[in-house]
Design a protein that fits this description.
One of its GO terms (molecular function) is 5'-3' exonuclease activity. Its EC number is 2.7.7.7. Single-chain monomer with multiple functions. Keywords: DNA damage, DNA repair, DNA replication, DNA-binding, DNA-directed DNA polymerase, Exonuclease, Hydrolase, Nuclease, Nucleotidyltransferase, Transferase. Belongs to the DNA polymerase type-A family. The chain has about 950 residues and is of the alpha/beta class. Among the domains are: about 260 residues, Rossmann fold (3-Layer(aba) Sandwich), CATH 3.40.50; about 230 residues, Ribonuclease H-like superfamily/Ribonuclease H (Nucleotidyltransferase, domain 5), CATH 3.30.420; about 80 residues, Taq DNA Polymerase, Chain T, domain 4, CATH 1.20.1060.10. It is built from 36 helices and 23 strands. A six-stranded mixed sheet has the order 3-2-1-4-5-6. Strands 7-10-9-8-11-12 form a six-stranded mixed sheet, sandwiched between helices. The longest helix is centred in the last third of the chain and has 37 residues. The N terminus is likely disordered.
């Protein structure tokens, strides 16, 4: 039942192609995905400490790719090891490549598990590179009359391009065929290996012929036909240096050709027929995602089981790393810079006040400037300021280093240590820049402004209160939430046709990475000043689009004003009682010990409960429980879906294991993890609110994530009790009551629901009475539970199978309840159909306040992907509308409290709730002020209602 429900309700995942489709094999260059994901995302760990940033990026990229591309066959191809047959041909082949970074090495196995979780074939073979296997499978499949698409932009694979084989650039989502190869190498695909043999490849240590580059090699091969024809004619070549190089290095050229030629005769690890595309098993995929802690992916794919707003598990996006997605959800044509656009680069390094003065004058004259900071940390509240960059016009930017130390030495003890570069002191620079950055007549343009504002307000000499500001990230997000990512690098490539210098380029990677404060000033300037330059150019391009895109009011009145509000909330933080956390952790540990005893008794012996392998052996080998399935590695599957299925059949052991896992997760994530986040300076935790991550406009919370503490469980309530008020204060919680259902009644204009909300009736009891034909006083607990489930489920496009699973009833009975619901409330079905139609016609839907929410896949041919997009189109206006209502309340709240003479501080926003720290003597006045603001921010057909409580801790405030 669970599998059927998940398959029908969710998958934004791979769908089988139509039976009549011609054979089509997709070969994904897995190694390329891995390294792109690793370098695109900042460090992130699972609760057990295992690094998973590459796993998250890879999983996200693969999920997005599978939603966009259908085929009859598919495989992800990996490199099995560093040593291949090419090392026997040339022992220096790839010899200079460093070992994988230590944070990446443990992720390789998990990435293969991710591939298997998507039910996609995983291909690798010792002694051969992934490119060889791709060549072999392409030849084999083409021989069967099929078409082949290789997902990679690797130049080494371009030799495979021919009528039946194409490449697909995973970033630009553009096919690479013969014209693109000709543009890259100057020759047709069948001559690529000859050009590479001459030019060599420093990346792989392919020697080639010294002094011959790609253009020269292409000209020579075009003239002489192929490598052997050229070498035979070498003595007759007129240019002396070229002639001598070809004669002297002829054998190296032949070796190079053997190195770059892919082995299309490589043995196939699996027969082609085993690469048939299959949809994933939702339970298995959900189990893998839960194990890694990828909650945002669980929700986006509809596999979380709980309709929670999506969150982002990644770290703070300081360095504007590109989104790990393969491509924008609905990409526009790639922009190219204007012919007369100012070039990037040639920026100035400012090391003294006299040199800074003309830049300050230029910024005042322009009235607008790009601004960016460089620091030593992603944590804005602890980061040290390393430098500031400003731009006054496209191509006119500078970098002011403030915290650069000596560059790393060469390790020679006899050499004198490098000296720190000459630069301004932070106090001197702040004194010079503060009047400009606080000048209301000069607009400061930043990207992800909240981070920079927090850093600069902590600078020396009392800090800088930067204002006014524009934020290019939020300008883009206001217009195109859900359409693509909003990192600076991605927007630059999309709108400016320019790929900025990457952070890895200037600092290195892995063990070789150095802090930005040790980067040489010329490299630091090129990187940092370019950020300010790109930001200013993006502003010039994007800001004028706000009005015609009907997003100006949203940006000016909500998103831009949220920057300062969230900055102050993050700086304030919330106090945590470490002793109470320790008591909770001890209690959880004791309960886990008791559960462990029970589990061992039920198993008949002791074993490691945290070991999926040992658990599988107990359940399926020893206890012979039904329904077990082995993975490709031979181990039994024991993810949450498997255990839930066994528990529903009445087996006690799986239920106890689920309880043990839940406690273990809460203990590591919300007890130990939270304790580690307490700032020793103020005993508070300072979460980071990500402003442009979700597709619906909702905020997400990271480091720590305070939005995913369980709401309805006793364990979650206990954890909330560890969040406390300062002495003399209380915590006040204000929660919008049933906001999404109120938006449903508003948008669908349902008279009976509007009447129930207007009278303050229990909406679920009223729904039960309406759809089950009951008198109001005859609605029992079970009828209300069913009505509540469908009220909330309908917003998320719940199917009959989903409702049946939630209520524990047959699908036919669930279908009759849904039919009765739509019969009683026809306006809801009409609104759902209108939203789907709007999404298909325009590519987006609108919130009640006009924000565009772009819907990926709404025109997809694959039924599963299109169905998922339709459910997203139905849900988006409710989540998006709720997000905008609470944001409107947040931007009005500080002024309302100030005008009322109240000292309350807004600390947190969690879904539809705001949390305040309030002096004990101002509780009633603050509650009234908060209620007035929250209930008055929007005029709907039904009243908004805020439920308010207070207490010494967060738990008591509910």
């Amino acid at each position: 039942m669970a599998t059927t429900e998940a398959a029908s309700v969710t998958p934004e995942i791979l769908a089988e192609p139509p039976k009549e489709a011609e054979p089509h094999l997709i070969l994904v260059d897995g190694s390329g995905y891995i390294f792109r994901a690793f370098h695109a995302l900042p460090p992130m760990n699972r609760p057990d400490g295992t690094p998973v940033n590459a796993v998250f990026g890879f999983t996200n990229m693969l999920a997005q790719f599978l939603t966009k591309h259908a085929s009859s066959h598919i495989a992800v191809v990996f490199d099995a090891s560093r040593v291949t047959f090419r090392n026997a041909i040339y022992d220096q082949y790839k010899a200079h490549r460093p070992e994988a970074p230590p944070e990446l090495a443990p992720q390789f196995g998990l990435i293969r598990e991710a591939t298997a979780a998507f039910n996609v074939a995983c291909v690798e073979r010792e002694g051969f590179e992934a490119d060889d296997l791709i060549a072999a499978y392409a030849r084999a499949f083409e021989g069967k009359g099929g078409q082949v698409t290789i997902v990679s932009s690797d130049k080494d694979l371009m030799q495979l391009v021919r009528p039946g084989v194409q490449l697909l650039d995973p970033i630009k989502q553009k096919p690479i065929r013969e014209p693109e190869v000709l543009e890259k190498f100057g020759v047709s695909p069948d001559k690529v290996v000859d050009v590479q043999a001459l030019a060599g490849d420093s990346t792989d240590n392919v020697p080639g012929v010294p002094g011959i580059g790609i253009k020269t090699a292409a000209a020579l091969i075009t003239e002489y036909g192929d490598l052997e024809g050229l070498l035979a004619a070498a003595p007759q070549i007129k240019q002396p240096k070229r002639r001598e190089a070809l004669i002297a290095h002829a054998e190296l050229a032949r070796i190079s050709k053997r190195l770059v030629t892919l082995d299309a005769a490589a043995p196939l690890p699996h027969p082609v027929d085993e690469l048939v595309a299959r949809p994933p098993e939702p339970g298995r995929l959900a189990g893998f995602l839960r194990e890694q802690g990828f909650r945002s992916l669980l929700h986006r794919m509809g596999l979380d089981g709980d309709a929670q707003p999506e969150t982002a598990p990644v770290s703070r996006p300081r360095y504007n790393a590109p989104s790990p997605s393969l491509a924008p959800a609905a990409p526009e044509p790639e922009a190219a810079p204007a012919a007369d656009a100012a070039p990037f680069g040639g920026y100035e390094t400012i090391t003294e006040a006299a040199a800074l003065a003309p830049w300050i004058a230029a910024a005042r004259e322009a009235g607008v400037m790009g601004l960016d900071t460089e620091t030593d940390s992603l944590d804005a509240l602890h980061a040290k300021l390393v430098g500031i960059s400003i731009a006054v016009a496209p191509g006119r930017a500078c970098y002011i280093p403030l915290g650069h130390g000596a560059p790393p030495g060469n390790g020679d003890m006899l050499q004198e240590a490098p000296a720190a570069p000459v630069q301004m002191s932070q106090a001197e620079a702040v004194a010079a820049l503060k009047p400009l950055l606080e000048d209301p007549a000069v607009l400061k343009v930043l990207h992800n402004a909240k981070y920079d504002l927090e850093v600069l307000c902590r600078a020396e000499n009392g800090g800088i209160a930067v204002a006014p500001v524009d934020d290019t990230m939020l300008i883009s997000y206001s217009m195109e939430a859900g359409r693509h990512g909003h990192g600076m690098d991605e927007l630059s490539a999309l709108h400016l046709g320019h790929q900025p210098i990457t952070y890895d380029t200037v600092t290195g990677t892995g063990r070789a990475r150095i802090p930005f404060g040790q980067v040489a000033l010329d490299k630091a300037t090129a990187y940092a000043a370019e950020d300010a330059d790109v930001t200013l150019r993006l502003w010039q391009l994007l800001k004028p689009r706000l009005r015609p895109d009907h997003a100006l009011a949203l940006y000016e009145q909500v998103e831009r004003r949220m920057v300062a509000v969230l900055r102050d909330m993050e700086l304030a933080g919330i106090k945590v009682d470490g002793a109470e956390l320790a008591r909770i952790g001890e209690d959880f540990s004791q309960r886990m010990v008791e559960l462990e005893k029970q589990i061992h008794e039920l198993a008949g012996r002791a074993f490691n409960i945290g070991s999926p392998k040992q658990l599988g052996e107990i359940l399926f080998d020893e206890q012979k429980l039904p329904g077990g399935k082995r993975g490709k590695a031979g181990a039994w599957g024991t993810d949450a879906a498997v255990l839930e299925e066994l528990a529903t059949r009445g087996h006690a052991l799986p239920r106890r294991v689920l309880d043990w896992r839940q406690l273990a997760k809460l203990k590591s994530t919300y007890v130990e993890g939270l304790a580690a986040q307490i700032d020793p300076r103020d005993r508070r935790v300072h979460t980071d609110f990500s402003m442009a991550v979700t597709s619906t406009g909702r905020l997400s919370s990271t480091e720590p994530n305070l939005q995913n503490i369980p709401i309805r469980t006793e364990e979650g309530a206990r954890i909330r009790r560890a969040f406390v008020a300062e002495p003399g204060h209380v915590l006040l919680a204000a929660d919008y009551s049933q906001i999404e259902l109120r938006l449903l009644a508003h948008l669908a204009d349902v008279p009976s629901l509007r009447d129930a909300f207007a009278k303050g009736e229990d909406i679920h009891s009223r729904t039960a009475a309406d759809i089950f034909g009951l008198a109001p006083d005859k609605v029992d607990r079970e009828a209300r539970r069913r009505a509540k489930t469908i009220n909330f489920g309908i917003i998320y496009g719940m199917s009959a199978f989903g409702l049946a699973s939630r209520l524990g009833i047959p699908p036919a009975e669930a279908r009759s309840i849904i039919d009765a619901y739509f019969s009683q409330y026809p306006g809801i079905l009409e609104e759902m159909e209108r939203l789907k139609s709007e999404a298909r016609e325009k590519g987006y839907v609108l919130t009640p306040f006009g924000r565009k929410l772009w819907i990926d896949g709404i025109q997809a041919k694959e039924q599963a992907r299109r169905g998922n997009a339709e459910r997203a189109a139905i849900n988006a206006p409710f989540q998006g509308g709720a997000a905008e209502i609470i944001k409107r309340a947040m931007v009005r709240m500080p002024r309302a409290l100030q005008e009322a003479g109240l000292k309350a501080r807004m600390l947190l926003q969690v879904h539809d709730e705001l949390l305040f720290e309030v002096p004990e003597g101002e509780v009633e006045a603050t509650a009234e002020c908060v209620r007035t603001v929250m209930e008055g921010v929007a005029a709907l057909r039904v009243p908004l209602k805020a439920e308010i409580g207070h207490g010494a801790n967060w738990g008591e405030a509910h």
